[in-house]
Amino acid sequence: MDRTASAVWKGTLKEGSGTIDLQSGVFKSQPYSFKMRFEDESGKSGTNPEELIAAAHASCFAMQLSHFLAENGTPAEKLDAKAAVTLIPGTGITKSALTLVGTVPGLDAAKFKELAEKAKAGCPVSKALGAIEVTLDARLA
User: Fold this and answer.
1) What is the pLDDT of residues 109-121, one digit of tens each?
2) 6, 20, 89, 120: which has the fewest C-beta neighbours closer than 10 Å?
3) How are beta strands 30-33 and 17-22 bridged, if at all?
């Protein structure tokens, strides 16, 4: 199975801009630029590669954990997963910090953390991010 995305860039790094398209059509000509990536700390001016990696990581992790919880006989009512991807200009992406609040009836905190750690290690995006630090802060609601 392949999934695709495309990016078009015009101009220089600092003055140029580009657009991103996703196979699903969720993004069509979504703008991105140097400012959006390196200067806008609010993250509101548009997307950037790190935000897309964070979205991929949080969603992959939540899906993987939901599978492990169901296998355990304790399906989740809700998993609220977030990923914060750290980019250090001149160094690169150094970290993805996962945070999770789960509502899982019938499951104790220790087993929840165990399965969350297993999902962190096993989700395909975590594996793809093997060159960086991946952390997890998981708790039950």
Assistant:
1) 999 999 999 999 9
2) 89
3) antiparallel
